[in-house]
From TrEMBL:
<dbReference type="InterPro" id="IPR027417">
    <property type="entry name" value="P-loop_NTPase"/>
</dbReference>
<dbReference type="InterPro" id="IPR037359">
    <property type="entry name" value="NST/OST"/>
</dbReference>
<dbReference type="Pfam" id="PF13469">
    <property type="entry name" value="Sulfotransfer_3"/>
</dbReference>
<keyword id="KW-0808">Transferase</keyword>
<protein>
    <recommendedName>
        <fullName>Sulfotransferase</fullName>
    </recommendedName>
</protein>
Length: 287
């Protein structure tokens, strides 16, 4: 027994997970490597170890390039730690072999002063129940976090992120493909009902913290989360932006079509949470 709590943030993507990771990364009573997404459980379930290692090496190359361009000592220190942690994780996980001891040790099991350790990988939202059950069994105290964002806004933000610098026309074309049944990764990430139902089939409700993106950046929401995790209160920078997508407006016609398509998610979340934030009932999608 380590006395620690292990947490998973399993999504949703583009719902504030990077900001929340940053808050906990800097919390004095928590420990996380400078690698937000471990991709341990999804790689094991899907057999995508080769892709995982390829992407990790690309990230290393990018960090090395940026390290040569940036002269800020504080930024350089974080870059150096990030590169060291990526190399350490590649040494610990070959992308094929399940080794929970190596996984937990890399994440800080038994680390002095760390009440909370864990793994922030939004793609875990797509996992099947056996993986969720295995995840819940890695330590004595395991808790999960899931962040909900207005489904249309989440999908549009995700599409803009994937679109990169290809411009407005390409982003809108990708959104039209989503509306017409394409972009299955986007659609699956929007299926809050699937994720929460599968997760709650294998863990008790009291071990799951669910919050709306639209009220995450408030002292009240952060206080609730710290209480859930057993951590001392903090006052993070609520204005800090992490991984913000390019700002491109979504026209009212596409907004309406997407709301119709995603109506089952709105209905499910309303029943599950007992409410919807005002932003969810407003057709204006904020970038």
């Amino acid at each position: 027994m380590t006395g620690q709590t292990f947490i998973y943030c399993v999504g949703a993507a583009k719902a504030g997970t990077s900001w929340l990771f940053d808050v906990l990364f800097h919390h004095a009573e928590a420990h996380f490597p400078a690698v937000k997404e471990m991709h341990y459980w999804d790689v094991l379930e899907n057999g995508t170890g080769g892709f995982f290692r390829e992407q990790s090496l690309k990230r290393l190359d990018w960090l090395q390039m940026r390290r040569a361009q940036v002269t800020d000592p504080e930024v350089n220190a974080y870059q150096d730690r990030s590169m060291a942690d990526i190399r350490g994780w590649l040494d610990a996980f070959d992308g094929q072999t399940r080794n929970d001891d190596a996984y937990l040790d890399f994440l800080g099991r038994g680390r002095g002063g760390a009440k909370v350790i864990g793994d922030f990988t939004p793609s875990y939202a797509l996992l099947e129940k056996p993986s969720f059950k295995a995840m819940a069994g890695v330590m004595e105290r395991v808790k999960f976090i899931f962040l909900l964002r207005d489904p249309v806004a989440r999908a549009w933000s995700h599409i803009r992120m994937d679109n990169g610098d290809k411009g407005e026309a390409a982003a809108l074309a990708k959104f039209d493909d989503f509306l017409n049944g394409g972009e299955q990764n986007i659609a699956r990430r929007n299926n809050y009902r699937r994720t929460l139902n599968k997760l709650l089939d294998v863990i008790p409700r009291e071990n799951l913290f669910v919050e709306f993106y639209e009220r995450l950046f408030t002292p009240e929401a952060v206080a609730r989360l710290m209480g859930f995790l057993g951590l001392a209160p903090v006052q993070p920078d609520f204005a800090k932006q992490v991984n913000r997508s390019a700002e491109i407006a979504l026209d009212p016609a596409r907004q309406a079509a997407a709301r119709d398509l995603l109506a089952p998610q709105y209905n499910f979340v309303s029943k599950f949470m007992g409410e919807l934030p005002p932003a969810w009932t407003d057709r204006q999608v904020v970038a």
